[in-house]
Amino acid sequence: MIKMPKIFLQAFAMFILTAIFYYVFLLSAVSDSSAMVNVFIDDGSGMKDIASLLKDKNLIRSELAFKIHSFSTGSAHILKPGNYNLTPDLRTPAIVRRLVNGPDPIKVLITEGMSLKDIENKLIALGLLQQGELINYEIQDIKDEYTFLESRKSLEGFLFPDTYQFFPDSNPRAIVKKFLDNFEKKALPFFEVDSEKFDYDFLIIASLIEREISISEDRRLVSGILWKRFKIGMPLQIDATVAYVKCGNKFEDCEPLTRSDFKVNSLYNTYYYRGLPPTPIANPGLDSIVAAFKPKKSEFLYYLSDPITKKTFFSRTLEEHNEKRARYLHL
Q1: Which of 43, 164, 238, 257 has its CA 20 to 30 A from that of 301?
Q2: Coil, strand or helix: which one is 6?
Q3: Angle (nearest 5°) at CA 282 between 276 and 284
């Protein structure tokens, strides 16, 4: 048996220790920073693409060490595409585990007054839905689980404003259910205070209040005016319903109304047609829902909001209202 020289064995051992130390170093965190770095891994990305992306984002020290660790742990072929929020203080093994476990949920803020189309556009931009999957969702598929939907044909008004978390692979049904579960939990109890039956008219009124009035203390007063008009058969004359038609059932990037816009022949034109519009025009928050149920009586029959200051001006007569309309809205 050939004996290796002691000095060679020592050198070999030193090499192995150095290699191990260097490999461990290459697997260590890039820094101690906990600043969030967003990483989106496309479906179909290979190991080389992922390693290069993480290196470019300064989340790993070595592409080679990342690949070696991924292959040696059997993780290389089960790294999942999607959206991730990673930090530079994570070691490479921790990052690999995150990619194996799957993408982070996508946080989505739905604000008061967004329309169904506004919300769909936001979810499309985040890669959660395709065009038409929300506004054309077949309610028949889900109405048996939510009695308040009854014979409704639109989800408008039922997507309660809140912060939601959706996974990138969520299907439209899962997304709709999360919205409706939240509506049922947080909004529906306000509709069932005085009656066991859900009253759709109150949701419509709440949506009008939400789009028309931004100042909380004015909402109950405007609610009283709208219910008064509704009961005496007077056209509601809501600018927001006209904007809803003009901008294709959305409010984002909507141009200011002009005189010609008020001539549109639509059931949502509450200057032409009496009564409530066919559906809500937006998704109201609790403040507007409460205002719809608790209107404040007054001698006023007209109101308008200054688009700049958001201040609400109330009038008793049409003459007084038209004067304010010309002054503040230039209509």
Answers
A1: 257
A2: helix
A3: 100
User: Contact, 173 vs 142, CB < 8 A?
Assistant: yes
State both tokens at 118.
Answer: 């506004």
Whole-number Å distance between alpha carbons of 166 and 171: 10
| CATH class of residue range 19-101 | alpha beta
CA dihedral 189, 195, 197, 198 (to 10 degrees): -50
Residues 6+ apart with CB under 8 A from 249: 115, 116, 117, 135, 156, 281
The rounded distance, in Å, linking the Cα atoms of 182 and 142 is 15
Question: Could you state, in chain order, the average pLDDT of each consecutive group of 10 residues for the chain (331 residues)?
Answer: 58 59 77 90 90 95 91 92 90 93 90 97 92 93 88 94 90 95 95 73 97 94 97 94 93 88 94 96 97 95 86 92 83 67
Length of the chain: 331
Which ranges of 213-317 would DSSP assign to H, the alpha helix? Answer: 216-232, 239-246, 286-293
* Residue where the block lists tokens 């306000």: 190
Q: Per the confidence metrics, is the pTM higher than 0.70?
A: yes
Q: What residues have CB less than 8 Å from 317, skipping those under 6 apart?
A: 301, 302
Give the list of residues 6+ apart from residue 167 with CB closer than 8 angstroms, or none: 82, 102, 103, 105, 106
Would you say 277 and 204 are in contact if contact means Cβ atoms under 8 Å apart? yes
In this predicted model, what pLDDT tens digit does every residue of 132-173 receive, in sequence order?
Answer: 999 999 998 888 899 899 889 899 999 999 999 998 778 999
